[in-house]
Amino acid sequence: MGGITDRLTASHRANASARGWAIMMLLALAAGCNNGSSLERLTEAQRLSSDLLVRFANAGNAANRAVMAGTDETATGYMREAEGATQTVQRDADALRPLLTELGYSVESGLLEEFNRGFSEYRELDRTILGLAVENTNLKAQRLSFGPAQKEADAFRDALESVAQTSPAKDAWQVQALAATALSAVREIQVLQAPHIAEADDAAMTRLEERMASSEALARGALKTLARLLPPPSRPQLDRATAALDRFHDVNAQLIVLSRRNSNVRSLALSLGKKRVLTARCEETLHAIQDALSKRAFAATR
Fold first, then answer.
1. Which residues of the chain have pLDDT under 70?
2. For a Cys staple, 178 with which of 35, 199, 222, 242, CB 3.0–4.6 Å?
3. What is the pLDDT of residue 1?
4. Backbone angles phi, psi at 168, to 5 degrees
5. What is the DSSP letter of 71?
6. Rounded Cα distance, 296 and 194, in Å
């Protein structure tokens, strides 16, 4: 009986030992699975952080191209590209947040929240910049200056030349002097258009407009004096000159309105100023997330 009892006791001990090993193996396997799952999440977090950095840079580049675009169509295309890129950045950031939470990475989670705050401010500013960029008011004002304004100024010149050619010989020198004065005044307005379009300061633009108004008044005064000197046969040419000056005035008024809006100047100033600061701050935070995750990955694979 003693031998049987001993054998049963040994058997129980062996079974208990086997169960213990089995439990240990299951726990080891579970730990291995958890480690593998954590490593997969860490790898995915690294991928998302890298994508964030690249896509954030792409969004900034597209917005910058919109600011520098030469046509409304081009600016609108780049604006849509920039908006799409910023939406992708936000999606990547939203996908990264739960991964960092599951992994228990409080430092990286804090950095991501910091990025999201900066990115929210960045997106608000970017919407303002892109909205201004697609207006292209400074470029439109420039096209008016080089196109219709130049055309009407030249028509004014041609009409004045016809006036001088049909004036009486005794008044020729005075007519030519008045015509030259009127044309010079209009050319002065043309010269002032370029600095007005480029100017960002309202007070400086007002001073330029006052000089334009003085020049136009000088041109109209010269035309009135010509009207008193010229015989009836020369009046049609003078009427042509007056009509050209009226059209030039209208074009210049449109140009001033567009230039005052200053959308290109303002969008460029915001891009080179406040947006550059926000961009640097966001990129620095993304680099910090990437570096922190790289250290985690290095420690996990040692």
1. 1-36, 300-302
2. 222
3. 46
4. -60, 150
5. S
6. 57
DSSP string, 126-190: HHHHHHHHHH-HHHHHHHHIIIIIHHHHHHHHHHHHHHHHHS-GGGHHHHHHHHHHHHHHHHHHH
Which pLDDT belongs to residue 10?
42
Q: Is the distance from CB of 156 to CB of 183 less than 8 angstroms?
A: yes
Identity (one letter) of the amino acid at 174? Q
Cα distances (Å, whole numbers) of residue 248 to 188, 245, 285, 286, 287: 13, 5, 54, 54, 55
For the record, the structure tokens of 8 come out as 């049963």
For residue 213, CA distances in Å to 133, 177, 188, 189, 261 come to 29, 21, 10, 8, 20
Distance, C-alpha 155 to centroid of its chain: 39
Which strand (E) or helix (H) includes residue 200?
none
In this prediction, residue 300 carries a pLDDT of 65
| pLDDT, tens digit, 9 for 90 and up, residues 43-79 | 999 999 999 999 999 999 999 999 988 788 898 999 9
Q: Going by C-beta distance under 8 Å and a sequence separation of 6 or more, which residues neighbour residue 227?
A: 235, 238
CA 226 – CA 240 distance, rounded (Å): 13
Structure tokens at 69: 């675009």
The reported pLDDT for the residue numbered 302 is 60
From the list 101, 11, 90, the residue with the least C-alpha distance to 52 is 90
Q: Return the closest-CA partner of residue 213 out of 171, 177, 256.
A: 256
DSSP code of residue 254: H
Q: Which domains are delineated in the chain? A: 40-135+265-300 (1.20.120), 137-261 (1.20.1440)
Structural tokens at position 233? 């046969």
